[in-house]
């Protein structure tokens, strides 16, 4: 799992890194554990973003992808096709509009799948997600039906094979020395485990950044649960709920009550 073999495959790898650690996170959009990973990743970004760059990689079955019937552009907007590979393809199509667009799309995929119980295998639902995020929908549909997406998925598969990643979610940590082996962590563990690994990889004591204001937090992430907010600010969940309700009264955010949790998101005028 030496990074020298990955240089040509990864656009994020460079001879000189502005941050000491690279973290590759392998996810499956249809995996419950990958969804459970999201709050952990967000907190890691909020507290230790200055120490690492983050690359989300899909652990997608190439067999499923090859079997996928690409959408015909003439009837794309009215298409009602479904396929297990569609969420991965859609995520890559979103990624063509920027890294932040890809993060937001993945978050919304999880929300639609596990909280709203929508069928994200459906092309029409994926277009709906793109619209809800304010992406360029015409560009999204064009990219979805292009073979550039398949090529991008193949690159992810190559990375998974090179790093010997068989499961999602999985982390692979690299330090600044391109000749060093990466540190692979399969599965999902407590937040403190990832803090410890990051510190060991950096090689000196790391300190968390002060959390941003709630306004800044909701600028960064489209929606957050009460528990996520509590963990980011290291306060009891009831205290987090009180602060969120204050923001609600000020009409800065809105509440999205779901069957098993409450989500909060920035209010759009």
Automatic annotation (TrEMBL):
<comment type="similarity">
    <text>Belongs to the SpxH family.</text>
</comment>
<dbReference type="Pfam" id="PF13743">
    <property type="entry name" value="Thioredoxin_5"/>
</dbReference>
<comment type="function">
    <text>Adapter protein required for efficient degradation of Spx by ClpXP under non-stress conditions. Interaction with Spx stabilizes Spx and exposes the C-terminus of Spx for recognition and proteolysis by ClpXP.</text>
</comment>
<dbReference type="InterPro" id="IPR036249">
    <property type="entry name" value="Thioredoxin-like_sf"/>
</dbReference>
<comment type="subunit">
    <text>Interacts with Spx.</text>
</comment>
<dbReference type="InterPro" id="IPR046404">
    <property type="entry name" value="Adapter_SpxH"/>
</dbReference>
<protein>
    <recommendedName>
        <fullName>ClpXP adapter protein SpxH</fullName>
    </recommendedName>
</protein>
<keyword id="KW-0963">Cytoplasm</keyword>
């Amino acid at each position: 799992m030496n990074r020298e073999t990955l240089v040509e495959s990864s656009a994020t790898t460079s001879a000189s890194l502005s941050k000491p650690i690279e973290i590759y996170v392998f996810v499956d959009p249809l995996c419950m554990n990958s969804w459970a990973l999201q709050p952990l990743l967000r907190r890691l970004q909020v507290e230790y973003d200055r120490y690492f760059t983050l690359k989300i990689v899909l652990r997608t079955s190439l067999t499923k992808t090859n079997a996928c019937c690409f959408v015909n552009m003439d009837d794309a907007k009215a298409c009602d096709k479904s396929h297990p590979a569609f969420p991965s393809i859609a995520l890559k199509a979103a990624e063509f509009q920027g890294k932040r667009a890809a993060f937001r799309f993945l978050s919304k995929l999880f929300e639609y799948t596990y909280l709203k119980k929508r069928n994200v295998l459906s092309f029409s639902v994926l277009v709906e997600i793109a619209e809800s995020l304010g992406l360029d929908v015409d560009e999204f549909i064009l990219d979805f039906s292009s073979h550039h997406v398949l090529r991008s998925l193949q690159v992810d598969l190559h990375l998974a094979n090179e790093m010997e990643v068989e499961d999602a979610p999985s982390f692979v940590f690299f330090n600044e020395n391109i000749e060093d082996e990466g540190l692979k962590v399969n599965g999902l563990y407590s937040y403190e485990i990832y803090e410890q690994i990051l510190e060991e990889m950096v090689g000196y004591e790391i300190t968390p950044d002060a959390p941003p204001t709630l306004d800044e937090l909701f600028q960064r992430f489209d929606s957050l649960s009460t528990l996520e907010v509590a963990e980011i600010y290291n306060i009891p969940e009831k205290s987090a709920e009180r602060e969120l309700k204050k923001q609600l009264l000020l009409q800065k955010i809105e509440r999205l009550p779901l069957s098993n949790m409450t989500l909060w998101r920035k209010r759009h005028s």
